Amino acid sequence: MKKRGYFFTIDAFLAIAIITAGMILILSSHSFVPYQTQTMYLSEGYIDTLASVKLYEVNNPYIDELVLKGNITKLEQTILEQVGEFYITGRNELAAELIRNLTQSLIPNQYGFELLINETTVYNRSTVPERTLLLVSSKRLVSGIINRLDFWTLQAEMRVWQE
Amino acid sequence: MNKKAMFFTFIAIFMVSILVLAFTSDTYITFKNRIPVVKHRVQLANDYVRNIKSIYLKRALYATGYRALYALAMDINKSGYFASETEFKDNFKTAVLNATIRGSESDTLKGRTMIDTLNLLENMSWDAYHINTSFEKDIDKISLTVFQDNQTGPWKVGVNMSISYFVDAGLAEWNMSEVVQAVFSITGLDDPLYLVGTSGEFTNYINQTDFEVWGIENLRAHIINRTYKYDTEAPDFLTRFYGDTSNSECCGIESIVYPYVAGFDQGRSFVDCAYWGGVCGFGALYNISNFDDLYPSDTFRLDAYHTTVYNVTEYIEP
Fold this sequence. Notes:
The complex is a heterodimer of chains A (163) and B (318). Chain A is of the alpha+beta class and 163 residues long. Chain A has helices at 2-28, 37-52, 61-68, 79-88, 92-103; strands at residues 111-117, 120-124, 135-146, 150-162. In chain A, a hairpin with a 2-residue loop joins strand 1 (111-117) and strand 2 (120-124). In chain A, helix 4 (79-88) runs antiparallel to helix 5. The longest helix of chain A is centred in the N-terminal third of the chain and has 27 residues, at 2-28. The relative contact order of chain A is 0.16. Helix content of chain B is 39%, strand content 16%. Chain B has eight helices and eleven strands. Chain B has helices spanning 2-23, 35-79, 85-98, 114-129, 192-197, 216-225, 272-275, 304-309; strands spanning 100-101, 104-105, 132-135, 143-147, 156-168, 173-185, 229-230, 253-254, 285-288, 301-303, 316-317. In chain B, helix 2 (35-79) runs antiparallel to helix 4. Chain B starts with a helix and ends with a strand. The chains are: A alpha+beta (163), B alpha+beta (318). Chain A binds chain B through residues 1, 4-6, 8-13, 16-17, 20, 44, 139-141, 143-145, 148-151, 153, 155, and chain B through 1, 4-5, 8-9, 11-13, 16, 20, 40, 48, 51, 55-56, 59-60, 62-64, 66-67, 70, 112, 117, 120-121, 124-125, 127-129, 184, 188.
């Protein structure tokens, strides 16, 4: 009689353990969260960098070349403001080359990224795979003045994705 | 025996439940995972609100203020001086805010006013950040002044604008009332004195001279280059819009009327503010020799004060 009690107790433990394990397996089988922290930090951090670092703070030969040729005249502008000025004045190729020069070593190769100004792609390091698991977008407003007479403001968007 | 078995079963279930509850994570912080998102959102909105005053409105005021002065000079070319300082400043305000000068819409300013910029910012803040921004756009509730003082000096103009705006980021709201200031150089703007004095036939662009020491050769170069110098007896740039040539100690500027503009009226000093009937300079009038190649013989004259200022007293002829 006492032995039956032990059997029933052990039986109850086993039953609960099996039910619990089964529920965990069922509930977790369809949930998958891609690792998003790094992508988000890249997207936010890089556009913040472009929006705050001024041209005179950057040691880059391409910027020096643009200054010498007269394409950059205001070194106190931020990188994003200069990209915006190139965009406004129809010099998208200079904007793309500036971004390419500044991003080569900053964003790891396993990430693709794209910079858009007013929803127009200015620079794209790789095409967006249709089946990418995670794409993070960060936006900033950027503004400037052309010829002392015209104020402009644009929307800059940085998209970063895992390849 | 069956009752004992049930009793043992219930004990087993109870003990397993205790074990499960003891090792589950804390659940009293129900929004723990959302805190980084909320923090980021508020930080983004706060940065945007800070940038409204320090960057967007300041730059917009710079551009619209400069363009307004340009347009006002063009209007003076057609319609003459403004009647008073008050009329000038009222027209400056309407020019900046809604492209209106003397009651008419200016083509130079249309579509590029401060109100247009505020509308653009409202739309873009929603598109980029999903933040609702609402600026005060009733021009009677916006205060706007243009000035020159010891801080701007003679070569710059300051514009102050008091404006209210409301920002709603969903998680937080800002109700702001700010004074935005922009200061810009007047270099390159038309001088109203020339426009009115020559009935629109000639203009002269404000351009500061490089000379600090004067003599006959520097004066010659100053005339040829059509530059301006600071002088405490001269009027400032803004007072030229309403024909007031009284002196400005902080911000007076003057030029010498260049040869083909001058009507060779021999009764006046060739300093611009005196040439067109103003009161700058004083003392007797003197011919200045050595300028016969620029002006017809014996026509170039300066008043006694300016012969001293330009250090050409040894070249004066009675």
